[in-house]
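Posted in: Structural Biology > Protein-Ligand Complexes

Title: Requesting predicted complex, D-xylitol-5-phosphate in pocket

I'd be grateful if someone could produce the 3D structure tokens for the following input. Sequence and ligand are given below.
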Amino acid sequence: MGHSIHIAPSILSADFARLADEVSAVERAGADLLHVDVMDGHFVPNLTVGPPIVESLKKVTRLPLDVHLMITNADAFIPEFAEAGADYLTVHVEACPHLHRTVQSIRERGVKAGVTLNPATPLSLLHEILEDVDLLLIMSVNPGFGGQTFIPSVLKKIAEARILLDKINSRALLEVDGGVKVDNAREIVAAGATALVSGSAIFSQHDYTATIAAMRAAAETAVQPAARATVNR
Ligand code: DX5
Ligand code: ZN
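-- Reply #1 --
Done. Output follows.
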């Protein structure tokens, strides 16, 4: 048995004027998590939303809020995002020089801690923190915008991450973010991912239920590394 796949629609591509409706729609359509992209115009060249939106979202959905902080001073904002109702808080290693302290500060507040890295950042920067995280996010585009193309060389990084997590028996989600579509879900999961963030590929479609179902079906056709290991035993 492999891991079950979590599908996390990113609201970045939703219609912000109808945000509550969009969120209910993906919830009804079978989403497992709701991915919220926080951008500050410094760490990434774009601006999005902050703690008040997270607080509002918390009131209109039962989906766990998977909050991705693309901000320079993540440490300063952890208390506010925790208070606002984030279920997962994911920080970038490039923005957190004292990553262990940052992860502790997230967990102390009863929030699940995630860490992530840009496509050009080596996975080795996260080796020492993997035992302490609930989620490892691999960026498959340079963060800042929805609708970009999946960078194929990231598949190798996902596979390396799978090996590292399995080695320590980690149950952390291995999430992939950027350019994820129905068409590439299978190879991403085959590399070892257990959670797929998808913005434009879901919100550009009229039928969210059909799109999420197709993505899940594609993902489930992949033979996951853990399942392969079991078969070989
Ligand atoms: C990119 C964000 C992503 C983005 C993904 O900076 O972190 O979560 O919304 O969008 P798509 O799925 O359109 O690549
Ligand atoms: Zn994201």
